[in-house]
Amino acid sequence: MTLKEIGSLRTIYLIRHGLPFFPFNKRSCIGQTDYPLSWEGEQEIRGIQAYLIDKNIEKIFYSPLIRCKRSAEILSCGTIPCVSVEDLKEIDMGDWEKMTFEEIKIRYPEEYKQRGLNFSSFIPPNGESFSMCLQRGKRAFLEIVEQTKGNIAIISHAGMNRALICWLRNININNIFSISQPYGCINIIIENDRNYYVDKVGLIPRIEVEK
């Protein structure tokens, strides 16, 4: 199906928050760990703000984690209504939270191997699987669409965004990491009468603005 065939009644901008502040300069598996945006992350979101300034955004929906809440505050400029949505939170990594993946491979070698074989159903100790993450994310997405009419922005996380794109593009969730989601990126979804066309994935708008 092409854009011409599907039409373009409105656009949904699915956004990944900017770079978080990692204590001790060590990137780790943060999942639902509530780290704030870094200075670099705020600049990434300001690039998105410039890109969206003429896109007639009706409302912004965001994960309640601080890095998404702050991203929403920047994008709204105090003028666009913002709504926190619990089900947009990142995948829960359970006991793996705050660990680097190198540490995980050492401490949980068999579990780490099983995760790589089946991203869809593998559950980290005391965490959730990507299928579970998608289930609540899909519910949130459909509720948001149902209650809005114009262009909207949804600010979430790499894992959640990838899971939603797998669903929207009918991609097996075991291939979830084939989807690029850099910090501060936009995924553009065209919606027409509850039909969805994923037009762009992993767009870095600050590059577009500089052009």
Automatic annotation (TrEMBL):
One Gene Ontology biological process: fructose 2,6-bisphosphate metabolic process
Coiled-coil stretches noted in the UniProt entry, renumbered to this chain: none
Transmembrane domains' residue ranges: none
GO CC annotations on file: cytosol
Pfam families membership: His_Phos_1 (PF00300)
Record organism: Clostridium bovifaecis
Name this polypeptide is given: Histidine phosphatase family protein
Gene3D superfamilies linked: Phosphoglycerate mutase-like
Gene Ontology molecular function: any one: fructose-2,6-bisphosphate 2-phosphatase activity
